[in-house]
Write a structure and sequence with these properties.
This protein is of the alpha+beta class. The chain is built from three helices and eleven strands, in the order αββββββββαβββα. The relative contact order is 0.26.
């Protein structure tokens, strides 16, 4: 009976710790699928808009509805490795916060120039372009709740194919990471306490 308050306290700590560890997973990343035709423009007028809370967000290319896009009707001028193409596939996008446009990906999403002069240039397949896109990991910080519009930069859309998929995820604040570590430590302490406990019996 005397152990009940202790067990209750430990159970409460364990539950709180588990809740702390689980909390960041609730902030799952949002996938933004940008079609190379319907979400392409010079000003983001037909982009995909997310209404995001204040905080820091990570940005990366992922494989979802799309892997990469091309602004050309054919691929040409590639080297033996399928890179440095004159025409080909790329992973690039732009996003607008307030009145400012930011560039992300191959060639900093520079439109008709594409990725030439940056990295390996265009690629001969969407799969190869996507494989190389892992080098791009961006982030942005919102000081207040804001609308963020993502789009593909291009104006001659008749020969476009494919698209890009972006992962936009909230980055936990340092205080959240600290709470996570405290929670994990509490769970570890409880498990250790249970392992070293012994039962004494008297004849």
């Amino acid at each position: 009976m005397g152990d009940f308050p202790m067990k209750f306290a430990l159970t409460a700590i364990s539950a709180a710790a588990l809740a702390t560890v689980a909390a960041p997973s609730a902030q799952a990343a949002t996938v933004v699928n940008l079609d190379g035709v319907t979400n392409a423009s010079l000003n983001g007028s037909n982009g995909v808009t997310l209404n995001l809370a204040a905080g820091t967000y990570s940005l990366s290319f992922i494989q979802d509805a799309y892997t990469a896009f091309t602004r050309f009707s054919s691929t040409s001028g590639c080297d033996g490795a399928g890179m440095n193409c004159a025409l080909g596939w790329e992973n690039s996008a732009r996003y607008i916060i307030g009145n400012t446009t930011y560039l992300f990906g191959d060639g900093a999403a520079s439109g008709g120039i594409g990725p030439l002069g940056v990295g390996d240039g265009y690629y001969n397949t969407a799969a190869l372009s996507f494989a190389k896109s892992s080098i791009y990991n961006g982030s942005f910080t919102l000081n207040s709740a804001s609308a963020v519009t993502f789009f593909i930069y291009d104006d001659n859309l008749g020969d476009n194919s494919g698209g890009v998929s972006l992962s936009v995820g909230a980055v936990p604040e340092p205080a959240t990471w600290m709470m996570m570590m405290i929670g994990i430590g509490a769970i570890g302490g409880l498990m250790r306490r249970r392992r070293i406990s012994t039962t004494v019996r008297y004849a």
